[in-house]
Amino acid sequence: MTKAEERNPLDHESVGKIFVRYLVPSLVGMLLIAVNLVVDGIMVGNKLGPVALAGVNIAGPVYTVFVAMSLWLGIGGATLYSQRMGQKKKEEARFIFTHSLTLIVLCTVAVGLTALLLHEPLVYALGANADTAPFASAYMKVFLMFGFVFTLENAFSIFVRNDGNPNLAMAALVTTALSNVAINYVLLYVFEFGVREAALGTIVAATLGLCVLSGHFFTKRSNLKWVKFRVDRALIKKTLTFGFPSFLAEVGISAFTIAHNIMFARLAGTVGVAAFSVVNYVHAVMLLMFLGMGSAVQPIISYFHGAKEEGKKQAMVRIAVRTAFFAGVVCFLIGQFAAKPIVGLFGDFPGEVKELAVVGIRLFFTAYIVMGVNFVMMTYFQSIGQVGMATWITAAREFIFMLAFLLTVPFFLGVHTIWLSIPFAEITVVVALIVYLKRHGLYFGKNGRLI
Q1: Which residue has the higher pLDDT, 146 or 10?
Q2: Stated pTM of the model
Q3: Which chain regions cross the lipid bilayer (predicted)?
C-alpha cells in the first residue's frame, strides 16, 4: 500500500468537502431506507387495509428496540473506534470493532428469544386491540426471531462509515431498500401473502445489504479486521456509556409510537390509530433524514476530537446545524402544502381517517424546524464524550417534555393536540440548548456567535 493510499482524507481535506463527502451518501442511504418504509406502508395499506397497517405500526417498536440495541453498541463502539483512528492507534481500533459486533449479535439473539416467549401479552401491551392484534402478532414474531440480522447490518454499516467508506455504507442501504420493495411487492401482490411474509421479505433484504457491506474487508484502505475476541469489561462500560444517547434516542421512538397509539386509541379509537400510522410512516422519512445528518457528522467529529483538531470540530458543527435547520424548514413547508396527497398515497381510507391524518401532518411537521438542530447537537456532545449532555437532550425531547404534554393537554383540549406533543418538546429543548451554550461560553460561529 502506498503512502497516498494510506493518507486519510480527514487529515488534509477542507471541512466543507469532508462534510459533503459523508453527508451525501448518508442522506441518500437513509432517505432510501425511509422511502422503503413508506412504500412498505403504502403496499400494506392498499393491499391489506388500514387495520393491517395499524397492526404493523403497533409491532413497529419491536423493530425499533432491535435497532436501538445496535446503535447502543454500534455508535458507542464506532465513536471509540474513530477516536482511536484519530490518535493513530489502529490495533486498538480493530479490537473495538470485533468486540462491539460480537456483543451486538449475542445480546440481540438473547433478547429476541426471551421476548418471543412473551409475545402475546407484549402485543396488547403495545396498544393492540382485537382487530389489530393478529396482524401485530404475525409481524412481531418474525422480527423477534430474526432481529439479529438487522442489528448486525446496522452496526456493521456504522463501522464501515467510520472506517472512511461512506459510499459502500450507502450502497448497502440502497441494496436493502430496493430489494425490500421488490421482494414485498412480489409477496403481497403476486403471491397475495400477508404481513408475516412481508416481514420475512424485509429480513431477506437486510441480509443482502449485509453481504454488500462485507465487501469492505477487501478494500485497500480498510482497517476493519477481525481479531481475537475476549471480554473486556472496561471497554463494555465505555462503549455502553458512549452509545447510550443513541440507544435512548431509538427507544424514544418506541416510546413515541406506543404512547401515541395508546392516546389515539383512547380518544379516537381505531380511526385515530389508523391516522397516526399514516403520519408515523411519513415521520420515519423525516426522522431518518435527520439521523442521516447525525450519522454523517459523528465519525468526523469523533476523529477530529481524537486528533485534537478543535477548529475543524467547531466548523463542522456550524455547517451541520445550518444544514439541519434549512432542511427542517423545507420539511415543514412540504407538510403544510402537500398533506392531502401524502395521506392519499397510503390508500383510500374512510374520510374521518383522512381528515385526522391531514391535520396531524400539518401540526406535527412544525417539529421539524428545530428537530435537526437538536439531532446535530446531541451527536456533537456524544462524539466528544460529553455523554451526560447528549443524554439530557435525548431524554428531554423524547421522554420528559413529550410525555408531559401528551399525557395532560389532550384530555382538556381534544384529540388534535396529541399531534403537538413532539413540536412542543423539540422547541423547548432547542431553547434550553441556546441558554446552556450561552452560559458555558460555547460558540461555534465567528465573531462570538453561537452558530
Answers
A1: 146
A2: 0.78
A3: 20-39, 51-75, 96-118, 138-156, 168-187, 199-219, 240-264, 284-307, 319-339, 359-380, 392-412, 418-437
